[in-house]
Specification:
150 residues; alpha+beta; TATA-Binding Protein; two-stranded antiparallel ribbon
Length: 150
């Protein structure tokens, strides 16, 4: 019985060490940025959602249609939802969100398409395989806030 308890505690400890390693690793990256004037496509992992590529059905959600395309207003909304703005350009914003317990960092990128009144978003976890739906939830939350403002 004592050996089983020691093995169990060893596995639990190894799990915590692994999660803290992933946390450390997530804090040393950056948002991938634009590729050919579009947000970077998601990788094969399910921890990313992007509005740019409708053919990638496992990672796709609709862009946000809005009249409020002001980069400063969008930056304020991101900050009000816990995001930290890293980069702001004419039609691009990069921000990060950090989880409370393990301190995992997720990237949020926004590309504004003024000619169609669209806000394209890419929200992705830097590490791990799954995001437990948090990136899609983040985009839905931003969509709701922007729809309330209009």
């Amino acid at each position: 019985m004592k050996i089983i308890l020691i093995i169990f505690l060893g596995v639990v400890l190894a799990g915590f060490v692994y999660f803290f390693y992933l946390s450390y690793k997530s804090q040393t990256g950056s948002a991938p940025g634009l590729v050919n004037s579009k947000l970077t496509p998601c990788s094969h992992k399910p921890n990313c959602i992007c509005t740019e590529y409708p053919d990638d059905t496992s990672h796709f959600t609709d862009a946000i249609k809005t009249n409020d395309l002001n980069i400063d207003n969008i930056s304020k909304i991101i900050a009000s939802t816990g995001g930290v703005i890293i980069t702001t350009e004419e039609s691009y914003i990069a921000a990060t969100y950090t989880s409370s317990f393990f301190r995992y960092v997720d990237d949020l990128e926004i590309r504004i398409e003024p000619e169609n009144q669209l806000i394209h978003i890419r929200s992705a976890s830097r590490v791990g395989h799954s995001d437990m739906g948090i990136n899609l939830k983040r985009i839905k939350n931003l969509r709701n806030i922007l729809n309330i403002k209009n």
